[in-house]
Amino acid sequence: MISPKIQDLLNAQLNREYSSSYAYLAMAAYAESVSLVGFASWLRVQHREELEHALKFYEYIHAQNGRVTLAAIAQPRAEYQSIVEVFEKVLEHEKYITRSIHELYGAAEAEKDYATKTFLGWFVSEQVEEEAAAQLMVDRLGMIGDSKGSLLYLDKEAKKRE
Ligand code: FEO
Whole-prediction pTM value? Predict the structure, then answer.
């Protein structure tokens, strides 16, 4: 059993996860458009992960006998200055998601909703990994400067993500 307030917050987070998924797919499309197919592949893996995150919220709301309500997903940004900017935005976005998960966790804590807190614990840990993965990309891209050869090497490395 979850309160109406927690249900609303869970539905809002479900929407954020779908929005993340859509935003990362748009970033992948940008990477494809500049022939950085390895980064595109990395972003598509991220896209799929976000879909899985969204479904975890879907399943949890139903497991608690709640009601899932799907809201509109905004059109994601299509164009970027560079792949560096893409990953800076990935990192920024993941930090935003971390804050939203923490706010939700705080709301569950305030209501003594232990089940929701336990459910959200997985996401709290996941966000540490999500931010670290994005930060690593930003750091590595920052190291190579204008070197096209190094960029292609990193692109190849990015493709290894499964
Ligand atoms: Fe589902 Fe990347 O946070």
Answer: 0.96
The 10s digit of each residue's pLDDT in 74-116 is 999 999 999 999 999 999 999 999 999 999 999 999 999 999 9
For residues 124 and 151, give the distance between their C-alpha atoms in angstroms, rounded to a whole number: 32
Q: Which token pair is 30?
A: 């940008």
C-beta of 94 in contact with ligand 1 (< 6 A):
yes
- Measured from the Cα of 93, ligand 1's closest atom is 2
- 119 to 32, 57, 69, 124, 150: CA distances (angstroms): 36, 9, 19, 10, 41
Q: Do the Cβ atoms of 42 and 83 come closer than 8 Å?
A: no
Ligand 1, atom 1: closest residue by C-alpha = 50
The range of the structural domain enclosing residue 12 comes to: 4-158
16 Cβ closer than 6 Å to some ligand 1 atom: no
Residue 162 has pLDDT above 90, yes or no: no
User: Does 47 contact ligand 1 (Cβ within 6 A)?
Assistant: no
Report yes or no: 87 and 138 within 8 Å, Cβ to Cβ: yes
Q: Which CATH number covers residue 94?
A: 1.20.1260.10
| Ligand 1 nearest atom to the CA of residue 130, by list position | 2
